[in-house]
DNA sequence: GTCTATAAGTAGATAGAC
DNA sequence: GTCTATCTACTTATAGAC
């Protein structure tokens, strides 16, 4: 990357956009609101990013890239052992995302929210950004298959998405969870929450298959 | 409800808004786009709903209310038996939402998408709408506790949200799932997908608790 | 209840000074 | 690289005819 000039303004714009996108949604956030928050002017966005869409992609890319690199590094380490454990594979996938919460240099909650929100963004944007996850999906899909060889590929495919869902929801709905618990529960203890998620997901992945004969009238 | 005049226009507006909200997001959908899609005029929205925010709430309420009523009815039936089965409780929760996909009178996919998207909407709107889920959360929380009495309440609380996550993700990311599977997988078979989700969630809820001593250096 | 017309404000994007 | 000023189009909302 040609980061000779990290252009303080560029970073300030990304920070402001990230915060406002997570808070109010992308469509509801105007460029003017972003420049106002960043303490710059309207033209700076067009100078650095060209148009709003490019700014949006840059906001996501800045967070996704290091998280996915971390995931792959952890998976490499897990697979260096001869017999990879299911929990270890899941942990390598889940922890880098949940860790964003306590990353010291950034706001925290809004980053998680933004990551989780990704999946519910409009079509074109979503698929453009999800391309950055293709390698991750392949590597982790293969690792899960090796850890759970009995599971038919199509069923593993479904469960892989259920797994993503429980993680993404934790990212996006952290405030709902804290709100509903009336103070009893906090998102601060990342270690504990990662382990909670890992156990749940491992149990779900290992669950016996349904027989697919149960239908409406059984309920 | 004073549904003496179901006001065809009102319904057309709700249908159009629902479709566009799911497709492009709420913030990015203008009232003009909605009236254009509905074949009405701009003033009709203000006549029927007053302002955009009220329209948004009406769009959600129209879908949430019957789904949650269905959930409670199913739970009543499940609890009528002496010893409620965990899978039955989960199914009562999950099926009414997934069933929207094949509801004959409406578009389908965009309704699911909208329901799943709810959790990633901005603060005020989200909490206003999530109030409609309070009764559901209490009833199902209690039912899950009775089916899994060994699980400490705080851990059940977490796992209940992981459960919501895997369901909400299936609702919101249906197109991602179909896209990634390259045609091998379809969302049409609601019965099979409900059973897939129920097995996964049941496995997750029944999983052994983590010991919470595993930390960063273990990975 | 439904419409047109219009007010009053805000959107993204650009030109050009410094 | 950063700024002000401005263009054009679109936004929500309202007033008033029918």
Description:
The structure is a homodimer of 219-residue chains. The first copy, chain A, has helices at 8-24, 31-38, 42-49, 52-80, 86-99, 109-117, 123-130, 134-147, 153-172, 174-181, 190-206. The first copy, chain A, is built from eleven helices and no strands. The first copy, chain A, is 69% helix and 0% strand. Chain A has two domains: 1-50, Homeodomain-like (Arc Repressor Mutant, subunit A); 60-208, Tetracycline Repressor, domain 2. In chain A, helix 1 (8-24) packs across helix 2 (31-38), helix 1 crosses helix 6 (109-117) and helix 5 (86-99) packs antiparallel against helix 8 (134-147). Chain A starts with 7 loop residues before the first helix and ends in a 13-residue tail after the last helix. Chain A is globular and about 55 Å long. Chain A is mainly α and 219 residues long. At the A-B interface, helix 4, helix 5, helix 6, helix 7 and helix 9 of A face helix 4, helix 5, helix 6, helix 7 and helix 9 of B.
